[in-house]
């Protein structure tokens, strides 16, 4: 094979790969749900010391954020969207706050661990919220 032919083949392969990725991203099916699914409902806690005493609880129509001490903030859920990724299921929960609508993205992994978009490295697992 000549260098020119190898170069053309590399360009064609790269172009096809980029096109595939773009089409896949544009045709990703997000599903709007009526309520959070059972897979994410319940209380979620972490052992990360930065979030000691914090948790969140997903209920059918509210999300409760335990923000430290004995303080918990409850917000009405406005929308839930689900999308499949290769390694996890992403859920976007839009909830109402006094400052406007907020979106919380939960990434649910097959081992039952939830990660939030930020900070991603913190693992959340089912547990009892702080009292």
Structure commentary:
There is one protein chain. With 131 residues, this protein is an alpha+beta fold. The chain has one domain (30-126). It is built from one helix and nine strands; from the N terminus they run αβββββββββ. The protein has one helix spanning 3-26; strands at 30-33, 42-45, 54-58, 62-68, 71-84, 89-97, 100-108, 114-116, 125-126. Strands 1, 2, 3, 4, 5, 6, 7, 8 and 9 form a nine-stranded antiparallel sheet that branches. Strand 4 (62-68) and strand 5 form a beta hairpin. It is globular, with a radius of gyration of 20 Å. The N and C termini lie far apart (71 Å). The model is unreliable at 16-27 (pLDDT under 50).
Map the helices and strands.
Blueprint: H1 3-26, E1 30-33, E2 42-45, E3 54-58, E4 62-68, E5 71-84, E6 89-97, E7 100-108, E8 114-116, E9 125-126
Antiparallel strand pairs: 1-5, 2-3, 2-9, 3-4, 4-5, 5-6, 6-7, 7-8
SS content category: alpha+beta
Percent range of helical residues: 10-25%
Number of strands: 9
Rg from alpha-carbon coordinates: 20 Å
Mean pLDDT: 85
The domain count comes to 1
Tell me the strand percentage band. Answer: 35-45%
Order of helices and strands: HEEEEEEEEE
Distance, first to last CA? 71 Å
Quick one: biggest sheet? 9 strands, antiparallel
The DSSP helix count reads 1
Short description:
The chain contains one helix and nine strands. It has one helix spanning 3-26, and strands at residues 30-33, 42-45, 54-58, 62-68, 71-84, 89-97, 100-108, 114-116, 125-126. Strands 1, 2, 3, 4, 5, 6, 7, 8 and 9 form a nine-stranded antiparallel sheet that branches.
């Amino acid at each position: 094979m000549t260098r020119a032919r190898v170069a053309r083949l590399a360009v064609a392969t790269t172009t096809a790969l980029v096109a595939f990725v773009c089409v896949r991203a544009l045709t990703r099916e997000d599903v709007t749900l009526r309520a959070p699914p059972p897979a994410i409902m319940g209380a979620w806690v972490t052992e990360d010391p930065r979030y000691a005493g914090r948790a969140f609880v997903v209920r059918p129509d509210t999300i409760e954020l335990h923000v430290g001490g004995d303080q918990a903030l409850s917000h009405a859920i406005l929308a839930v969207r689900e999308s499949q990724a290769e390694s996890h299921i992403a859920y976007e929960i839009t909830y109402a706050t006094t400052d406007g609508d907020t979106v919380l993205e939960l990434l649910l992994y097959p081992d039952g661990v939830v990660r939030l978009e930020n900070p991603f490295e913190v693992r959340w697992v089912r547990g009892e919220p702080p009292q």
